[in-house]
């Protein structure tokens, strides 16, 4: 019994609509949308899907259907996206365009090759199961490519990507089973059409699952940008509060100068040179301890150094800084995490040291494209380790996550982190690569 045109159209329309959604999703990540024409995308998508379905109904050779489908996909992509922004990725977009256009022919040919002795109803609608299998494979290839090609997409944990990849893998297994089921048993037109519509529903379930995943990706990026802004504002506020506090201290010091001058005048009238020298030395030491240092033009780094230097002064720890390089190439969150953990660990170690308490920080260039951060601090000489990992000496429940964060940030730049113990001096060295890897530049 020949399938009616209505059955064939009902089976192919969801397939063509999925093809357009899949290709537009690829273009949306790789190319730049045309904002003026974006509003007409729903109407253009439906019209193109209907036109591709009409082409499938024509009694034409398969290669003509492939060429016409590829032409429609290309027109849709050129009309709604700016291909001038694609660069080298246009080759991949064009390759996937041809692969999607060939999906119908590949699916039907693959079905006939794998099921040559099918005993079930030999209608063309059954071949759509092969098309579903082919489309699901193309879908997974496109998603893997997007993950590799788009830096935003790649930043999400591979764990979550694999979790969402379970959906198309499960649907692929179901489509293979449905295809085999229809080849092994004789089913009615209604049953076969129902199975095909179930397969189409699985296609759109895969698309919806990854639409949810990509929405999560964009939401996390927005949250990250918000954290950047919030962190920078907090740093600026901290810096402002420090300046205000120091200005208040300076105002108090200026108010006290007249008392210092009166006392020095009294010592001078008594010709007490020893007392004058002693008093001036005490004043110099007091002014030095109250001075607000400016270590670098990098505002974020300077705020961190000023804050930690003030904490060190309150704890009686000498804080020495030598800067001949910058870490401004790091994003603000990584810079704060890195320097905050390094200096917090140093403050913790130096605070518990016997005798001379000190922290020495050095940031310098190394070879071409590398920056070295070295922190030395006095400590008690006792460390806790688990395997090759250094554990915190804080209360139970802290397990050296700070050192692990430092190591992860260094490795993300292509660098490394190591620590060394020399008697009662603890040294942490972090090597950072200022040149981003090629995959981050894309």
Order of secondary-structure elements: HEHHEHHHHHHHHEHEEEEHEEH
Note the beta-strand portion. Answer: 5-15%
* Low-pLDDT segments, ≥5 res: 395-400, 437-442
* Main sheet characteristics: 5 strands, mixed
Describe the 3D structure.
- With 442 residues, this protein is of the alpha+beta class.
- It contains 14 helices and 9 strands.
- It has a 5-stranded mixed β-sheet. A two-stranded antiparallel sheet has the order 1-2. The protein has a two-stranded antiparallel ribbon with strand order 6-7.
- It is elongated, with a radius of gyration of 34 Å.
- 26% of the residues are buried.
Topology overview:
Layout: H1 5-30, E1 32-33, H2 41-57, H3 62-80, E2 81-82, H4 90-101, H5 103-114, H6 128-149, H7 151-154, H8 158-184, H9 189-269, H10 273-290, H11 299-314, E3 318-323, H12 332-351, E4 358-366, E5 370-378, E6 384-386, E7 389-391, H13 401-412, E8 416-422, E9 425-433, H14 438-441
Parallel strand pairs: 3-4
Antiparallel strand pairs: 1-2, 4-5, 5-9, 6-7, 8-9
Question: Main attributes?
Answer:
9 strands; two-stranded antiparallel sheet; 442 residues; 5-stranded mixed beta sheet; elongated; disordered C terminus; alpha+beta
């Amino acid at each position: 019994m020949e399938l009616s045109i209505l059955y064939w159209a009902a089976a192919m329309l969801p397939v063509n609509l999925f093809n357009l959604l899949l290709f537009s999703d690829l273009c949306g990540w790789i190319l730049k949308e045309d904002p003026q024409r974006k509003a007409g995308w729903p109407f253009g998508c439906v019209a193109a899907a209907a036109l591709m379905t009409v082409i499938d109904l024509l009694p034409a050779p398969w290669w003509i259907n492939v060429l016409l489908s590829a032409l429609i996909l290309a027109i849709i992509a050129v009309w709604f996206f700016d291909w001038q922004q694609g660069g080298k990725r246009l080759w991949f977009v064009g390759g996937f365009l041809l692969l999607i256009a060939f999906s119908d022919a590949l699916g039907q040919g693959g079905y006939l090759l794998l099921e040559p002795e099918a005993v079930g109803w030999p209608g063309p609608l059954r071949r759509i199961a092969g098309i579903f299998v082919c489309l699901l494979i193309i879908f997974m290839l496109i998603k893997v490519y997007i993950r590799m090609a788009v830096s935003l997409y790649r930043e999400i944990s591979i764990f979550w990507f694999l979790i969402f990849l379970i959906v198309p893998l499960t649907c692929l297994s179901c489509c293979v089973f449905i295809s085999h089921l229809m080849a092994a048993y004789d089913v009615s037109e209604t049953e076969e059409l129902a199975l095909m519509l179930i397969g189409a529903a699985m296609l759109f379930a895969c698309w919806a699952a990854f639409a949810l995943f990509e929405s999560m990706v964009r939401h996390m990026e927005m949250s990250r940008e918000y954290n950047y802004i919030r962190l920078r504002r907090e740093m600026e506020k901290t810096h402002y509060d420090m300046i205000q506090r120091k200005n208040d201290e300076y105002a108090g010091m200026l108010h006290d100068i007249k008392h210092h001058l009166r006392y020095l005048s009294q010592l001078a009238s008594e010709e007490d040179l020893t007392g004058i020298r002693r008093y001036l030395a005490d004043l110099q030491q007091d002014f030095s301890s109250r001075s607000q240092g400016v270590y670098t033009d990098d505002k974020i780094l300077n705020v961190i150094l000023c804050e930690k230097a003030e904490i060190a002064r309150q704890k009686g720890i000498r804080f020495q800084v030598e800067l001949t390089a910058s870490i401004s190439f790091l994003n603000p969150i990584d810079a704060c995490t890195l320097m905050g953990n390094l200096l917090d660990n140093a403050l913790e170690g130096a605070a518990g040291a016997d005798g001379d308490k000190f922290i020495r920080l050095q940031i310098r260039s190394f070879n071409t494209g590398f920056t070295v951060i070295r922190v030395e601090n006095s400590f008690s000489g006792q460390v806790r380790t688990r395997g090759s990992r250094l554990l915190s000496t804080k209360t139970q429940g802290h397990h050296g996550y700070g050192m692990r964060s430092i190591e992860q940030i260094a490795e993300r730049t292509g660098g490394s982190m190591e620590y060394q113990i020399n008697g009662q001096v603890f040294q942490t060295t972090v090597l950072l690569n200022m040149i981003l890897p090629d995959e981050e530049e894309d």
